[in-house]
Amino acid sequence: MPGRFFITTPIYYVNADPHVGHAYTTIMADVIARHHRQRGDEVFFLTGTDEHGAKIARAAEDAGRTPKDHADELSGRFREMGRVLGASNDFFIRTTDEQHKAVVQELIVRMHEKGDIYKGSYGGWYCTSCEAFYNEGDLAEGRTCPTHRREVEWIEEENWFFRLSAYRDRLLAHYDAVPAFVRPKSRMNEARSMVEMGLDDLSMSRAQVEWGVTVPWDPAHTVYVWVDALFNYYTALTYADPGTDLVDRLWPPTLQLMAKDILKFHAVIWPSLLMSADLPLPERLFVHGYVLKGGERLSKTTGNIVDPFPYIERYGLDALRYYLCREIRFGDDGTFTDEGFHQRYTTELANDFGNLLSRTTKMIERYRDGVVPADPGGDADLANEALAAREQVLAHFDRDDVTGAVEAAWAWVRRLNRLVEEREPWTLAKDDARAGELDQALFSLANGLRIAAILLWPVIPQSCEAVFSALGEPVDGVLLAGAAWDAGTPGARVTPPEPLFPRIEVDEVTA
Ligand code: MSP
After folding, report:
1. Residues at CB less than 6 angstroms from ligand 1
2. 511 pLDDT exceeds 50?
3. CA neighbours closer than 13 Å in the CB half-sphere of residue 369
């Protein structure tokens, strides 16, 4: 049943350039969004940038420019990253948007009026890279942040507090009522124990930080950057489509993606803010792992980054999208390596998929003048296997198992490669008495490839569109309903394409 599907990525900090870690979340969200469009769902895919707070103000100062100029420049680079990655997001939010700021103010006024916000004073160890306070006991050696291993600073001031502690029981009740609120399960358990261990109220304004949203009833304060940022998921819907209130149609989010570093903000603080503002909670959060290089998480702060753009230039966009989906099991950490990238490109994309298309179209051209034969109807078993592949892909997506979905689609590609070897169309072509068998083999290969391209389209859209045109099928035919055995275009004419994934020599890679 088609429905509504609202998916989000975290909004990225504009303190430094985007890297493969950010690209990863955006690509995974895009794959899921595209899959849901194929189901016929009304999809809304939101991403953007997180631009306020001390971290950004400092990055701007280091760069010798105003926070706004700095944010404009860096936000532009994240937007450009999305474009280069083929991200099909419906909106790109910036927390410096006036409309966003106004709605954040409305929401916190609502929370204040309800009695959930009070004035207090607080002293704690603050990590600007995390934009978060730590208790003494949570600090790493040498009084450093446990995540960034950077020095923390003691911050003591009078500010506004959100009664987070008051939401403890309601949070636990929600976790009980909706066990899949956070996936994977291990992350749900982690969130639950954070809450069970007890929650401090949240310092939600800062007097010392000017670069932020003004607290409406106390203009000497700005809103804590995480409160400002989390609300983006809601505020975006109020102005993404001028003249239409998308909140009514789309709220709450169906699926929110993030890495485990920001689990507490999303699984504990975010639902509490929403309960306080009397808004329905997201259906679920999916917490993925880290993209690692040399055993370390990619991060600007640790100086360990991989730039996605050179891989796209060398291997093409689809190669990067495929590699990330396939290599890093969604939910687990995974290591990005040049060798692994090259290997999957060559053996899977170029050999399994690209060669299959080129052999199939060439044989249809040579033996049948380029026209896909009509289905002689003798491959009922294979038709069932195709149907099973589609069902598996759907089932994996329902469990947020993007890697499993790609594996299931790839098993079908490999099945078609075996079909070529089993049927040997080149042998059939030598014997006129076997023309019917040759028709069947060629039809099944072309049709099987058409179905493979539908299943893989969310992951490698450009290549799959090239497959559709090589097979003489409409390029916009990507609905999953089309992945049925009898849904192809009768009498389609093939055009052998340029190689989908041209050979790339290793020395070019290491150069
Ligand atoms: N601005 C906050 C999020 C606010 S959301 C209301 C923030 N920004 S960030 O720029 O640090 O981005 C963090 C997110 O980027 C992670 O949660 C994850 O989605 C993605 N990743 C950044 N580095 C990553 C890896 N090395 N591996 C996987 N994902 C990574 O936190």
Report:
1. 10-13, 21-22, 24-25, 50, 229-230, 232, 258-259, 261-262, 290-291, 297-298
2. no
3. 1
